[in-house]
Amino acid sequence: MDASFYSMILDGLSDPLYVLDSRGNYVFVNSAYCNQLRIPGRELLKMNVHDFLKTGQITECLFDLVVRQKGQIIRFQDVMDTMNTGRPKFRQLVVMTPFFDENAEIRYVLATLRPVDQINRDFYIASLESTAAAKTVLANYTVEQGNIVVESPVMKHILSVAQDISETDATVLITGESGTGKEVVARYIHSCSNRKKGQMVIINCASLPETLLEAELFGYEKGAFTGAAPGGKRGLFEEADKGTLFLDEINSLPLSLQGKLLRAIETKTIQRIGAYKSRSVDFRLIVTTNEDLQQLVEQKRFRADLYYRINVIPIRIPPLRERREDILPMADLFLKEFCRKNGKEKSFSPQMLDNMVHYDWPGNVRELKNFVERSVLLSTEQYIKIPNIGGVFEAIPGITVRQDIRKSEFVESRIEEMLEQGMSLEDYMEDCEKSVLEWAIAKYGSSYKTAAALKTSQASVMRKKKKYGL
Questions:
Q1: Which one of 37, 63, 107, 313 is least enclosed by Cβ atoms within 10 Å?
Q2: pLDDT tens digits, 375-407
Q3: C-alpha span between 97 and 95 (Å, rounded)
Q4: How far apart are CA 371 and CA 332, in angstroms?
Q5: All structural domains of the chain
Q6: pLDDT (tens digit, 9 = 90+) per residue, 41-78?
Q7: What are phi and psi of 96, to 5 degrees?
Q8: SS3 at position 356
Q9: How big is the chain by its Cα radius of gyration, in Å?
């Protein structure tokens, strides 16, 4: 077999792969690697692996380690986001294998790559068909703390920090998009703290009008206002004595109450509405916001002194799209919960798992949980597949949902059309493939982007493009 055969085989692999010479120059790259970097192969073959070190896309050149050790290495490597300096874009497992010449000098280095989220997804899919022993391994594959299930390094670090600071009474400011799990982390801090025997009192600052919010927070004396309870009422600060007060969406707190809150935090005293004396309270404060408080300060919508007072220990919870490793473990947890609650036995199909990992989940964990519940309730088969569920995946390229008729009716109409035209199954499949390819090329333009969207190789796209005369 000639060299072209081996090139074809390597190019068809789904995992990114490349070969370097003894100086780190690229001598071979497959389509999957080109798709990952979004750089054409002809351009990569003009480059040296150290070029990515210069641009900051990698912080360590593993090729140099192979040269020094003269042996195979297996390492995790963070690929940095150059548009957001200092943040990993994704993490990958790199296996680099040297090949030597007759003088025992390195001649070539073969590198195979696999993103961590791909490893997690493959592991999960394999576990679906594995034995009970393998499922036990899966349970140990993630960090589980109550309702918190994480696999991503960033969330493991956040839980570690949360556990460390739980031993203090420092105020914690948890930021992040809606639905990321800010309250879950707040509950975790309380459960690990010395105050866990006390109450964790929760109030959403956006849920009540200003007049009621003040009464809820600080309480009131009897006769303080029309409609007040005859014996007065304890406020949430008092309820949280010896425990934790959790103020959700503090960005919605009215300016008129921010000064009073600041005083309560600094003096650990509160004054009920209509009272003349202050009361001492011993509480730990945790607050969350889904808006940028610093920006609100600049807009005069949030007091600067309160912002600096609550920003003692800031914790940012990243959205799911920045920690895709957590998607499948959480989906599995929710799936078990809703199957148990509804007396059903369901599993996600491999295609569904793949789409779940690649979907951005703008509603984050809340959206994921709702989707899993809907999947369990609406799916008609044991394996939950794309055709069973409508809505959430409509925006993913290559998946179109007809809104005017049910999917089953749509499929039936297509089959009937095929039979009426006298098409064979093979002809029908080729017609579908041509339509998908034509649509993807029109949408993405280049063959590399088309291959990435359709999860195939660029060489395959070019062959089929020629075959169908596109």
A1: 107
A2: 888 777 777 775 444 454 444 333 333 333 334
A3: 7
A4: 12
A5: 3-114 (3.30.450.20), 150-318 (3.40.50.300)
A6: 888 999 999 998 888 888 888 999 999 988 888 888 88
A7: -115, 125
A8: helix
A9: 28
